[in-house]
Amino acid sequence: MYRSLYIMVFCTKKGPMQLPSKNHVHAWLLVMPAAILLIAFTHYPTVSTVIKSLFSKGTAIRPSRFTGLENYQQMFQDPIFWKVLTNNLWFALGTIPTSIALAIVMALLVNRSLPGRSLVRMAYFTPTILPMIAVANIWLFFYTPDIGFIDQIAVWMGFSGHNWLGDPATVLPAIMVMTVWKEAGFFMIFYLAAIQNIPPEFREAARLEGAGRWYYFRRIMFPLLMPTTLFVLINAVLNSFKLVDHLFVLTKGGPDNASNLLLYYIFETAFSYFETHYAAALTVVLLVLLAVLALGQFFILDKRVHYR
To answer: How far is residue 19's CA from residue 172's CA, in Å, rounded to a whole number?
Structure first.
């Protein structure tokens, strides 16, 4: 009887059934803390946000009810949403290429033998380690009308002062400049590591063939930097859509939503107006937009990425 039970449980037509080994158990135990945190703080909030976006706002008198796509219909009819989305796209187009190009230039500069190279590297990287609130307050000193550093220099040179953060035409470019100043040094670190990882024989061979610096950079160095560029580009795109702290200190989205960006609009909708279900719908749109951009970068740039 016991022998028959053993054969039924532990044997199959293809041979003995494989029982989990200690290594498998240990592996799952090691993965479990990270998996629990990933599910609790990533997957569950995402699913919960999608479900919440399909319900109406509940009150003490009228409970929340299922409304389907009503929040999304309201969003597409919301002129502020389109204004904020346009601002965010312009912000991304203005900061991402500039940050990456400046990071490459700084990495090439500090990779050369120059006096005080360590100090120059530290100066380039210092804005990255500063808290965002501190960065916003530093640039608030630069942009303050009349008494700000920029206006003082302008008056000294014979120009009139300007309200950089109060003018709808200049507020978004002013925030772009601050963002590039903070992010370029962070991206520079990755490019510097990638440049130092390129074998020097490539440079020597190009020099023997008579290639100039620009030709060497364009045809040899930059293609080898494409994996780093892909990584930096994804991070730059994510950073361009998650700016909140700077806006909270500098402009609060004004004037007239000229500097309002998508994530700050979500923050304002949820915590200032307490429209949490509408904010959930906005969040879903933001997640879909970021997913489409990330997938597009992978599919478009994957053919241009050269792994060694």
So the answer is: 61
- Distance (Å, whole) CA 136 – CA 264: 15
- pLDDT bracket for residue 214 (50, 70, 90): confident
Q: How far apart are the first and last CA of the chain?
A: 61
Residue 104 has pLDDT above 90, yes or no: yes
Average of per-residue pLDDT across 120-142: 88
- 174 lies in a domain? yes
Query: Please, which contacts does 70-79 make with residues 24 or more away whose CB atoms are closer than 8 Å?
Result: 71/277, 71/278, 71/280, 71/281, 72/281, 72/285, 74/278, 74/281, 75/278, 75/281, 75/282, 75/285
DSSP string, 147-187: TSHHHHHHHHTTPPP--TTT-TTTHHHHHHHHHHHHHHHHH
pLDDT tens digits, one per residue of 45-54: 889 999 999 9
Percent of the chain with pLDDT over 90: 39
The CA distance from 281 to 142, in Å, is: 37
Look at the chain and report how many structural domains it folds into. 2
Same domain, 291 and 142: yes
**153 and 29 together in one domain:** no
Same domain, 31 and 116: no
Q: Are residues 94 and 153 in the same domain?
A: yes
